Amino acid sequence: MEKRTFLKTGLLLTIGAAVSPLIKACKPGDKTAKASAVGATIPPPKLRRTEPFSLPPLPYATAALEPNIDKMTMEIHHGKHHQGYVNKLNTAVADTVYATYELDDIIARVTAADSEKNVRNNAGGHWNHSLFWEIMTPGGSAAPTGQLAASINASFGSFDSMKTEFSKAASSVFGSGWAWLCVGKDKGLFISTTPNQDNPMMLQIVDRPGTPILGLDVWEHAYYLKHQNKRGDYIDTFFKVINWPEVARRFDKAMFG
Ligand code: MN3
Q1: 196 with 129, same domain?
Q2: Would you say residue 22 lies in a domain?
Q3: Residue 23 carries which DSSP code?
Q4: Rounded to an integer, what distance in angstroms lies between the CA atom of residue 96 and that of residue 141?
Q5: Any residues with CB less than 8 A from the CB of 106 and at least 6 apart, and which?
Q6: Are residues 127 and 154 in the same domain?
Q7: How far, in Å, from the CA of 232 to the mean position of ligand 1?
Q8: pLDDT tens by residue, 78-125
Q9: Looking at 134, 164, 182, which one is the last position of a domain?
Q10: Domain with 225 in it: what CATH number?
Q11: CA 86 to ligand 1 center in whole angstroms
């Protein structure tokens, strides 16, 4: 990306008899991306991070999603698994180019190289779970309305068809991974899955990049205590606790900035 200087021509001001055009030069700021393997698709880095990554608090009590998602699963999933990704991420990025990068910037740049495996897995783990807690809410919420509903209908035909396709995708993940509802480059919605802790923001790794607005963790640690091997029951249960207003907020941000 090239540095560009934008010039804004100010208003013509009349002061007494004098007429003078004001020309204001805007500094371009630190928006120059380094050259990278996929060039222009990677956003420029944000401000440098100075604090270690930390576990975001749950937006509700660990028992709040009962009876759909049980307290013990939430305690272990958030307090042990997610905390583990955060801790390992801090270790993994130390002394690498990512040491002071924000999470989104790491996710956008991390590659499938063996040397980046720990960064990839733990940055993904931190990002994915941070989204996951927020897109659930005690008691669930009414199905989406407005622009998100219209977009779901345009992309899938109906809310129920989207739910069916999402559930099939989540069921089809072999082993550990995630199912996603994403806003694509064309601003349409699509459903995808990723293995392990990958996600659709990993531009150097996934086949089809997108901005996830809904994600479901289908690792066994997310459901085994309550549902054992019945992943389908867990997927059905998940739809009872989705925070659609939060999904809509993420949709609006992805669509309209
Ligand atoms: Mn998990």
Answers
A1: no
A2: no
A3: E
A4: 42
A5: 93, 98, 119, 123
A6: no
A7: 16
A8: 999 999 999 999 999 999 999 999 999 999 999 999 999 999 999 999
A9: 134
A10: 3.55.40.20
A11: 12
